[in-house]
Amino acid sequence: MLTQESIQAFVADWYKKLDVHAPMVEVLPLLADAELECVFPEVTVYGYAGFESWYQRVIRTFFDEVHTVTKAEADIQGDTATVDVVVQWEASVWSAPDASSKRINADAYQTWSLKAGPDGSPILTKYVVDDFVPREGSATL
């Protein structure tokens, strides 16, 4: 059964894994393969294969990532939940032949859909980036 506590822990674990570029074997158990839809600013992906393609590109592009959750409010309806998430994302990016990397600092406004997995813990079924707002002084993507 989904609870506010289990969802808060899930959100924290999700971003910790993104920050450290966790291997896919650690990320896949958090996702619902057949139902998964992820709407990112640059692409929409489906299922494990689509997510892995996106994830592998991202972890090879950005480094020194820090995700700071500023909001994670869940509306739980039985074994599903809709979560309103706001995260401040900071990351460095280097593009050849630039002499140095650039720092991105932005707020991402997101809507997640979760369901209870077989053991009752949350599993991500839909991840939508609703808006992406660079902070003052941020490099552009």
Automatic annotation (TrEMBL):
Species: Spirosoma endbachense
Source taxon at top rank: Bacteria
Protein name, entry field: Nuclear transport factor 2 family protein
UniProt-listed InterPro entries: NTF2-like_dom_sf
